[in-house]
């Protein structure tokens, strides 16, 4: 090949490379321009979408505000119309509000009478059991009521006598207790919640005071007289419109009798509501006035009536006790300057009375008491406590001897039964022998 041909070939190659670079550069520029255009279009689309969304949100907010304003305006207009209707109704029928107030008061009187009926029924059950079974049963009932006040669940499944168990269940229902379960799943009775709990606790405390009644038969007769008195009226009064479901425990089935005798003495407490006889408005007002007067008498703001005092509380409830705590003070003695005296402490009067008892008589009394306890058998509280102890031991054995801490262990050893209390009270006698030091008084 010649030099001319070589130069032509090299020049053609260089021109081809130049054209190739130019084409690649042009393609790259077009590609960048296209990407830039697409990016710009995407940015514009996002901006339009955001603007559209903001516009929609603003419109929704405005619509909500307008709807709220319309609702408020409509409610104001409705209230204004109702007030206008009420005023026109009062002008046309002036006794409409008075009738509503009377109906409301009658409903309140009926509810109050039902509660009083349940309380009187529970008192009658306690007094009747004490009159039939003795005052020992009253002490056991008192212990059971103490458990209820402390918030524990009372389980009656351990009582074998069906009549006694049914009577006690009726007593707890009348007292306002509701059904509950223990940690072991046993069903029993316990205080409710809220206002019902406060009312039931007050009723149980009142039943505890009834357990200390000195003469259950007289108290039962007195309660029957009060139950047949004028307080029965509101229970038979006119019934208001149907109310919603009542709060608290529902009234249970009729109580089973403790024996076969069905005399007039069993009809104690306020009778059940009746729809046959309805009281007039004057009678309802008279009963309400009498109840207000009784409340003022109880507070000491009014004097009792002559006829009301005879059918009220018994004399032992009204007369104060004979013991006077100020008898030990000698008002005639001149107050001397204080000084220390070395004298032995203790109640000298109690020691003098204790020395008068013959040891043989004391031994016979203890023997009679022991025989009486053996013949009487364990009490309901003892049976309940033994059953709980057996369940606790069985539960501990089932765990394989492992000690599993529980919150119930915090209450272990806190309760003191009557045997431990007796040992504790008798143990104070040994302190006089151990410590012969004198007690300083001034």
Structural summary, described in words:
The chain has 442 residues and is mainly alpha-helical. The chain has 14 helices and four strands. The chain is elongated and about 155 Å long. The chain starts with a helix and ends with a strand. The C terminus is likely disordered.
Would you kindly provide a brief summary of this structure?
The chain has 442 residues and is mainly alpha-helical. Helix content is 62%, strand content 3%.
**Count of separate DSSP helical elements:** 14
Helix residue percentage = 55-70%
Overall strand count: 4
Question: How would a crystallographer describe the biggest sheet?
Answer: 2 strands, antiparallel
Radius of gyration: 44 Å
From the N-terminal CA to the C-terminal CA, the straight-line distance is: 150 Å
